[in-house]
Write a structure and sequence with these properties.
The complex is a heterodimer of chains A (about 800) and B (about 100). About 10% of the residues of chain A have low confidence. In chain A, helix 31 packs across helix 33. Chain A has 33 helices and 9 strands. Chain A is mainly alpha-helical and about 800 residues long. With about 100 residues, chain B is of the alpha+beta class. Chain B has one domain: 2-Layer Sandwich (Potassium Channel Kv1.1, Chain A). Chain B is built from 5 helices and 3 strands. In chain B, helix 4 crosses helix 5. Chain B is globular. Classes of the chains: A mainly alpha (about 800), B alpha+beta (about 100). The interface between A and B is medium-sized, with 28 and 30 residues.
């Protein structure tokens, strides 16, 4: 086999190659190439020559010769050409400062320099490309084997050393330094709004990007990155720091934002068109740092800063601020903080305004709820004051809602509905609402007012919006249990006194609350509605029952519409005047009202009917809550018969006078004795019947505002009214802001119920866990209760104590941290 | 021997000429660079490359390889090209020279 292989011909081996001749050929050829005269050269011949030299193991010599040749060429021919372009204006800028040459001169000279440098670089590249091609074999064989940089890389290094790194003269800066300065100078001109040859600079930047610090071509040691980019960033930082400070002083926040935005875009463009893309993030960071991060606080707190923008609804400017801050920090701490502060301020203003309004009527506080009998019809001074409080409540809610709307709007339009900012805003809203101690009450009042009056002539959509708004505020409220108490109370009054405009809407509201706050919250409210429906059925049933019995076919028989209420679900004490609530607890202590026979019959009839239907249930009559329609005849009135609507007690009193002979009078004590109406209620009812001018059915002696012991009352036969229907003001009919004492009571009750809730939660948790550390128990309890209210840590501690006392829990003695154990 | 841009002429040391597709010939980096119009050497102008150290026989085989390589580019399980044993060494040298 081996014998068959033809030995290679001698010529190919090139044993006769003489290095010096061959190199001579190559050198001449290279010179031709550098002077752009390559078309007469045969690539193959040069290639073959280089090939031969390398084959003769003269690769190293060839390599060095080529390198030396290039060095010579660059050092003499190329450099001198470039140095020549360094004209006077450029050199003058060296040490003495820029002002020596006008911008224009500087620009032109700079461009000339850049052009020549660019030309030299491009030529060098092309020639070296060709050389590399010719010396390909050397690169492939010699350089790889001897771990030398390719001849191309080597020559690039030579270019760097010979052209860029060599000082122009002794002691003068190197071309690289001059180049850097010129480019930066040009960029500065660009920033100042003058036009420059971006493409030219870009080419030079390309050159810097193509060169490396050392002959090892490490990616992050590009000539561009090290001296040039660093210098560029430093100068930019300086420039923008100054500019930012100047702008902060000179212009308003909106302009500043716009300017900063423009600068950032400009730098972006500049990197694309003039410098290198890789600089973009870095210069961005610089501009952001200088113009935004370090200035944000100042910007926001400027006179024309965020507060000003919010005040004047400058949505666009706000969105600019937002964009800027979003650039530097996704959490936007400054803006968030500023917004929170503004909300807190505005909220506090609203809260204070509400408090001021409610306190501007101090006389009401003296007489809470007891002697404003005619809240709706006759606007006595105290009633007005109470109204004022209610108005304050409504105003508070409205303002809170406006505030919320406003910031939602800002958030949506300016902050692209950003999560963090809107969370912060929400949190501040919640803080504002919860900072107001009467918040729960006021919200409930707001709903109450809307239910009673607000939703009258409103379309469904509007009603919906109102409900939605209420829920919105409610969502922020942390003491939801207090709200529940108030709402129950208010709802109760609305239902019993038929003040509600639409049961439909009430139910809607409840279902909304259910969605928002959960089942347990609305349980009792729903039960109230159920009672109402049941009662209606019951009343109808009874009416039919009476009709069926045809008992005496008595047309004079009083009709009865009854409401049977489950005592647990209804906050009936709301109707009791605060003073004697305690005494009236429990049916036993209740004084027996004496009914006139006609009423008594009806009452007993219903009791019989009810116990037939539901045996074993006890009915307690809440006379103080009922009302009655009477037909009354006044001899001197315009109308023969008036329809009078009054409370049950008032009815009893009036019926009493029916039985008395005309002109006979009765003292307060007599009336009390004959009706057994509790004194307080009696006084209040008599006041509406005998004092209020429009419903003065009785004449009192002596004539005075207050009902005192010994006062005498008699039938007012002179009564005259142009109205056919007369409504006697019902005691504490409206839902008003509570008086101080009432509030204290509500609070106390609330605290009690919170206590129970806490205990229940603690027991639930402990039952599950059996043993738990104190801190953990606290956290879990708070988590469980947080949707109802914000539990007080001290209260929890107290409750735990009491649970230990009652032996539900015990302390674990040997535990390292204080712990409890559940005792089943 | 009109050389269209798509075809180039390769000339061996003993004056055999081979007209081959440019794309095929450029499989060899050396040939590719010789013909690169950007560099503007003589070869690029005339579209002709003269190899003074490769014989006609070897160059034929080289051209055959150019086509063979281009045809089977990326394909798998191709039949090996058939080389006469006696040309082996010279072919190896040419291959080294042309960097294929």
């Amino acid at each position: 086999m081996v014998s068959k292989i033809r030995p290679p011909r001698r010529g190919l081996n090139g044993a006769d190659v003489d290095f010096h001749t061959t190199w001579g050929i190559l050198e001449t050829a290279f010179r031709e190439i550098h002077t752009k005269n390559a078309s007469a050269l045969s690539f193959e011949e040069l290639y073959r020559n280089a090939y031969k030299i390398v084959l003769k193991k003269k690769g190293e010599e060839l390599y060095n010769r080529v390198a030396h040749f290039e060095e010579q060429w660059l050092g003499t021919n190329v450099r001198s050409g470039i140095v020549k372009t360094l004209s006077a204006p450029l050199m003058l800028t060296d040490g003495a400062g820029r002002t020596l040459a006008t911008t224009n001169e500087r620009r032109e000279a700079g461009e000339k320099f850049l052009k020549s440098l660019k030309q030299a670089w491009e030529d060098h590249q092309v020639c070296m490309g060709m050389l590399t091609d010719v010396l390909m074999y050397m690169d492939r064989v010699y350089c790889t084997d001897h771990h030398q940089p390719s001849i191309f890389a080597k020559s690039m290094g030579l270019f760097r050393d010979q052209i860029l790194r060599t000082p122009v003269r002794q002691g003068a800066p190197t071309l690289l330094e001059i180049l850097t300065r010129i480019i930066l100078d040009q960029i500065q001109m660009d920033r100042d709004g003058e036009s420059i040859d971006q493409f030219l600079i870009k080419s030079n930047v390309y050159m810097l990007e193509g060169l490396y610090q050392s002959n090892q071509e490490v990616e992050d040691a590009k000539l561009y990155l090290k001296p040039f980019e660093r210098e560029f960033l430093r100068q930019s930082a300086e420039f923008y720091r100054d500019e930012g400070e100047r702008l902060l002083k000179e212009s308003d926040a909106g302009t500043y934002c716009r300017h900063a935005k423009r600068r950032i875009d400009e730098e972006n463009d500049r990197c694309r068109s003039t410098l290198s893309e890789s600089t973009t993030p870095k210069i961005q960071a610089v501009v952001e740092d200088e113009l935004i991060r370090n200035k944000m606080k100042g910007l926001i707190e400027m006179e024309s800063g965020v507060a000003f923008m919010v005040d004047n609804d400058k949505l666009h400017e706000l969105s600019l601020v937002f964009d800027l801050e979003a650039r530097v920090d996704p959490r936007k701490p400054e803006l968030t903080k500023a917004m929170q502060k503004i909300i807190a301020e505005m909220g506090t203003n609203i809260n204070n305004a509400a408090i001021a309004v409610s306190e501007s009527a101090p006389q009401t506080e003296l007489a809470p709820a007891e002697d404003q009998p005619e809240e709706g019809k006759t606007k006595g001074a105290p009633a007005k004051a109470i109204n004022q409080q209610t108005v304050a409540a409504l105003k508070w809610v409205e303002e809170i809602l406006t505030l919320k709307d406003r910031f939602d709007n800002i958030c949506k339009h300016s902050f692209v509905a950003d999560q963090t900012v809107s969370t912060a805003i929400n949190r501040s809203m919640a803080d504002v609402i919860n900072a107001f101690s009467r918040g729960s009450e006021y919200i409930s009042l707001f709903i109450d007012d809307n239910m009673k009056r607000g939703i009258k002539d409103k379309s469904e959509a509007e009603v919906d919006a109102t409900l939605e708004k209420s829920i919105l505020v409610l969502r922020y409220l942390s003491d939801k249990d207090i709200f529940e108490t108030y709402y129950k109370k208010h709802l109760c009054k609305r239902l019993l006194l038929k003040k509600s405009q639409s049961v439909e809407v009430e139910k809607q509201m409840i279902s909304r609350m259910k969605i928002e706050l959960g089942n347990s919250f609305t349980l009792k409210l729903e039960a109230m509605f159920k009672d109402m429906t049941l009662s209606e059925e019951l009343s109808n049933g009874y009416r039919n029952h009476v009709a069926g019995m045809n008992e005496g076919a008595d047309s004079r028989r009083a009709e009865l519409s009854i409401k049977v209420l489950t005592s647990m679900t209804w906050p009936l004490e709301a109707f009791r005047s605060g003073t004697d609530g305690g005494e009236q607890e429990g049916g036993g202590g209740r004084t027996q009202i004496i009914y006139p026979p006609s009423i008594l019959r009806v009452k007993e009839g219903f009791e019989r009917f009810y116990s037939q239907k539901y045996s074993g249930r006890k009915l307690t009559w809440q006379n103080n809550m009922g009302d009655a329609d009477l037909k009354a005849r006044f001899p001197n009135s315009r109308h023969a018969v008036h329809d009078v609507n009054c409370s049950t007690y008032a009815m009893l009193i009036l019926l009493l006078f029916n039985e008395l002979p005309t002109n006979a009078s009765a003292t307060l004590e007599e009336i009390e004795a004959r009706t057994n109406i509790p004194l307080d209620d009696l006084k209040r009812n008599l006041q509406s019947l005998a004092v209020a001018p429009k419903t003065r059915f009785l004449i009192k002696e002596p004539m005075s505002r207050d009902i005192n012991a010994g006062d005498r009352f008699k039938w007012n036969s002179e009564y005259n009214s142009k109205f056919l229907r007369i409504k006697v003001g019902v005691v504490s009919a409206g839902n008003k802001v509570e008086g101080d004492r009432e509030r204290k009571e509500t609070e106390k009750k609330n605290n009690d119920s919170r206590g129970f809730a806490i205990e229940a939660a603690v027991v639930r948790i402990m039952k599950q866990r059996k043993e738990l550390a104190h801190a953990q128990l606290l956290t879990e309890t708070i988590t469980q209760l947080t949707h109802q209210f914000r539990p007080d840590v001290n209260m929890i501690k107290k409750r735990v104590e009491s649970l230990i006392e009652r032996e539900y829990l015990e302390r674990v003695e040997e535990a390292p941290v204080p712990s409890y154990r559940y005792l089943a | 021997m009109a050389a269209s841009p798509d075809y180039v002429t390769l000339v061996s040391s003993d004056d055999f000429t081979f007209v081959v597709q440019r794309s095929s010939a450029c499989i060899s980096p050396a040939v590719k660079r010789m013909l690169d119009p950007l560099n503007g050497f003589l070869e690029a102008k005339t579209n002709t490359v003269r190899f003074d150290n490769i014989s006609g026989m070897v160059l034929e085989k080289v051209c055959e390889y150019f086509y063979y390589n281009e045809k089977n580019e990326g394909a798998r399980d191709v039949t090996d090209i058939d080389f006469p044993t006696e040309l082996c060494l010279e072919l190896l040298m040419a291959a080294d020279y042309l960097d294929v």
